[in-house]
Write a structure and sequence with these properties.
Largest sheet: 8 strands, mixed
Number of strands: 42
Distance between the termini: 65 Å
Radius of gyration: 29 Å
Shape: globular
CATH class of the largest domain: Mainly Beta
Strand content: over 45%
Oligomer: single chain
Structural class: mainly beta
Number of domains: 5
Low-confidence stretches: 5-13, 181-189
CATH superfamily of the largest domain: Immunoglobulins
CATH topology of the largest domain: Immunoglobulin-like
CATH architecture of the largest domain: Sandwich
Helix content: under 10%
């Protein structure tokens, strides 16, 4: 009995010791070795896509994570005023947490802040004061306003950006100076003299269009200095009268803008805003250089059921065009249906029970939930025209947009069930295989989606390091935008296993995978164009039963690719 008890106690102590948590501790310093406080640190364990555990460095730069289950972790850190490459965190490290022990003495060094500076000169080489200079990422990925940086030139024409994410950038300068013209013995009108000349907005190093812009790298150790020489341009003032057709109503201010003549040109900065007198309906667009434009006016009430818009081409020469009228007309009603094809279960109504607490007591309501949404994205003016997504009825598959401004739109279908995809899209009486449709004024439009079951596929991971047994996040980059709305995330996979799944609709993709703990630490969108460009696309067929290779990138390999993107093959000695 004593022998049995001793064995039991020994086994219990061994099991307890194996379950004892560990810990991690260390110090955060800057490039000079001084401690840095209030740096956010996070641990991800590679078992889930969540953000993991986090803490902040103390006033003396110290940090500690405890208690932690034993295992392998990725430790990364970030500082709001000093972001890491491509807007992500600073370069992280791998940490092993051992049973009942503390992994101490870790030293994390923040890279120096990234800066870019320059000056703006006029055509005589003199500094220009008060110019707005914008920096935005040069990559093809979508980015929000949080990735755009702005500075204003000082009295010497200088500007400087501090603490921007290391990245490749495009710069855009917009100077609103009115250039002097002679008005000898002229009577000054109440609204001032009309602007006759101003500086042409330019992309660095001197292009009026985004396609001619010169890209440059900004990263620790580079500190690029830009010089932009402005070009004077004769400009005109466009005026006119705005009226609304019956049925058009709005509450928020109207938008009146001039856009480039073709939708392909980036309109984020190249559009010109106009002003509207809401009492009289008179609009004015000042400082318009000669050229061809699309004038787009629309209401901005996103929840309005009676929005109005007007779009038409306009050419501006050296002499301002005569005042002209704009009539806001109601948007076009667009209706449609989502139909399930063979192999896709028939739609069933989805209900949710919700209890509300009212003064008279709890009230239970039963609501029907949508099966998904239909999304319309403007191609003509994505920064101006917006239509709220339409809900798909989970019982009938029907959906409706009360009013859509005429023009070119890209259509996407997003379903709450991930097992089917859009096999075909019919717009009125024609197929729209690329999802682009043209809404014409005064003509009702109809969309018909036909769904099919996603094909069965197998995945196998390529290029996995031999000593790496962590989970991998599989991502897909489509060659062309699919009709089915997709995120880049596909699935989680393990090395050495073949994974069967039904997550991708037919089409051409570049498939890649990142270590899960690394992938969960950052926004992956800026990385995908860099990593996927050297991967051969694969064709996913509708019949399925395919085995697809997935190119794996370790965290170290990704960091090397990003470093080469920023610095080229010969980084400066001061690069971290």
């Amino acid at each position: 009995m004593h022998r049995t008890l001793a064995v039991f106690v020994l086994m219990t102590l061994r099991a307890w010791s194996q379950q004892q948590p560990g810990s991690i501790s260390g110090l955060v310093v800057d490039a000079s070795g001084s401690p840095v406080s209030d740096v956010r640190l996070r641990l991800t364990d590679g078992q889930s896509t969540g953000s993991g555990t986090e803490t902040n460095s103390q006033p003396d730069g110290a940090f500690r994570f405890a208690p932690l289950p034993p295992g392998r972790y990725y430790l990364y850190f970030e500082q709001f005023q000093n972001p890491g490459p491509l807007g992500g965190p600073q370069t992280g490290i791998r940490v092993e947490v051992k049973t009942g022990r503390e992994t101490a003495g870790l030293r994390l060094t923040l890279a120096p802040p990234t800066a870019a500076s320059g000056r703006i000169l006029d055509d005589d080489g003199q500094p220009v004061v008060g110019c707005q200079v914008f920096l935005f990422p040069a990559g093809p990925q979508e980015y929000g306003w949080n990735r755009i940086n702005m500075a204003i030139t000082n009295d010497r024409g200088n500007f400087r950006f501090e603490g921007i994410p290391p990245d490749r950038y495009v710069a855009y300068a917009h100077c609103m100076d009115i250039l002097p013209t002679e008005h000898l013995l002229d009577v000054v009108p109440s609204e001032g003299f009309e602007t006759k000349a101003t500086w042409l907005p330019l992309y660095y190093a001197g292009s009026p269009t985004r396609t001619g812009a010169q890209e440059f790298s900004a990263a620790p150790g580079l500190d690029p200095r830009l010089e932009i020489h402005l070009q004077a341009a004769s400009v005109s003032t466009i005026t006119g009268q705005l009226t609304a057709a019956p049925g058009v109503a709005w509450q928020n201010p109207l938008s009146i803008e001039l856009h480039p003549p073709t939708p392909e040109e980036d309109t984020r900065y190249s559009h010109i805003n106009g002003l509207l007198d809401h009492k009289t309906g008179r609009f004015t667009i000042r400082a318009v250089p000669p050229g061809s434009y699309r004038l787009i006016a629309n209401t901005s009430d996103r929840n309005s059921t009676t929005p109005g818009s007007a779009t038409f081409p306009i050419t501006v020469g050296n002499i301002a065009p005569n005042p002209f009228p704009i009539v806001l007309r109601p948007g076009v009603a667009v209706t449609g249906v989502v139909e399930n094809g063979p192999g896709v279960p028939a739609m069933q109504p989805i209900f949710q029970t919700r209890t509300e607490h009212t003064p008279s007591g709890p009230v239970t309501r039963r609501e029907k939930l949508p099966a998904g949404h239909i999304i319309l994205e403007s191609i003509d003016a994505p920064s101006s025209l917006y239509v709220a997504p339409a809900e798909i009825d989970s019982e009938t598959g029907a959906f409706a947009f009360p009013a859509v401004p005429p023009g070119l739109w890209r259509v996407r279908c997003g379903l709450n069930v991930n097992s089917s995809y859009v096999e075909s899209l019919q717009f009125n009486d024609k197929l729209a295989p690329d999802g682009v449709v043209e809404i014409l004024p005064g003509r009702a439009a109809a969309l018909r989606f036909r769904m099919a079951a996603k094909p069965d596929l197998d995945l196998h991971l390529d290029n996995v390091p031999t000593d790496n047994q962590c989970n991998w996040m599989v991502l897909a980059v489509p060659e062309t935008p699919p009709l089915t709305q997709l995120g880049e995330f596909v699935t989680i996979a393990k090395p050495g296993s073949v994974l069967g799944f039904r997550a991708l609709p037919p089409g051409r993709y570049r498939l890649l995978a990142l270590e899960l703990d690394f992938a969960a630490s950052r926004d992956r969108a800026p990385l995908l164009p860099l990593l996927s460009r050297d991967i051969d696309p694969v064709e996913v067929s509708a019949t399925g039963n395919q085995s697809l290779p997935v190119r794996c990138f370790s965290a170290a390999e990704v960091e090397t690719i990003v470093r080469t993107y920023l610095y080229g093959d010969n980084p400066p000695p001061t690069a971290p």
